[in-house]
Design a protein that fits this description.
Layout lengths: L1 E7 L13 H9 L3 H9 L8 E4 L9 H15 L2 E4 L7 H8 L9 E6 L2 E6 L13 H10 L7 E4 L18 H8 L5 E4 L6 E5 L2 E5 L5 E6 L2 E6 L2 E8 L2 E8 L6 E6 L1
Parallel strand pairs: 1-2, 2-3, 5-6, 6-7, 7-9
Antiparallel strand pairs: 1-12, 4-5, 8-9, 10-11, 11-14, 12-13
Helix pairs in contact: 3-4
This protein binds fe (ii) ion (FE2) (2 copies).
Amino acid sequence: MRVKFLHISDLHFSFSYDKGDERFCRMMKKMTSPLEQVKKLFDDVEKDFDFVCVTGDICEYGTVEEYRFIHDWLEAYFGCKVIGVSGNHENRKAFIQGFLGKEKCDPLYEEHSINGFRIICFDSSDENANDGLITADSCNLLRKSLEEKDIPTIVLTHHHLISSQFDMPVAQYGDEFREIIRNSNILAVLNGHTHHSYEGNFEGKPYYTAGSLSFVCECINNELNCYEHASAQRFVYDNGILSKTIYEEKNDPHFIDRFSI
Ligand SMILES: [Fe+2]
Ligand SMILES: [Fe+2]
């Protein structure tokens, strides 16, 4: 089996950037559209992916129309199925309706099968826990799915899971989640949220965080300095091996805005 897919994250797309934190809205109004960032990276790349996965913060507290628009835009641009998980900047109800095309998805958990390759969309977002929360109910669903060990499988979350990878708090999870991952046959865990790409190992499994298609922030003397950012990663699964290539804009960081925190 050979499967080729693209991992993107954190587009924070909006038609107008008028919802949420006022300072972030001001910054995002000044940044290049995430759609332009996608085009900068991929206009000259052969788009022969079997699917594209987006690990959350797809919209900035989007409306149903915004989620529908970005989903359809990405599918038309890449010419393949686009799969997504919810992030902490999502409007969950609108995400479910506009991006997933469902009236309800409770609990928020999906499995997709593409050419015999399985993608598990595992929800790490919680409306009362900005840094992410992995619940016992989600763990039960994951445990059941991963009892089937013969299907090549990746697990998508939004939040990062390794505390040393970045200075934002990781999602809250317990030993049960660790044990499920450790005892599974999954190929990798993929996520976003930090806006910085990272490669590591979580409970013995390959682990990849994608950079963003919007901005990165750096804290200097209690001020947040924000820069444009365009990063994505391509994976190829071939003969049982998963390999990765990063696509990244190589220009100097383009400053957008600065504000106190
Ligand atoms: Fe984000
Ligand atoms: Fe996030």
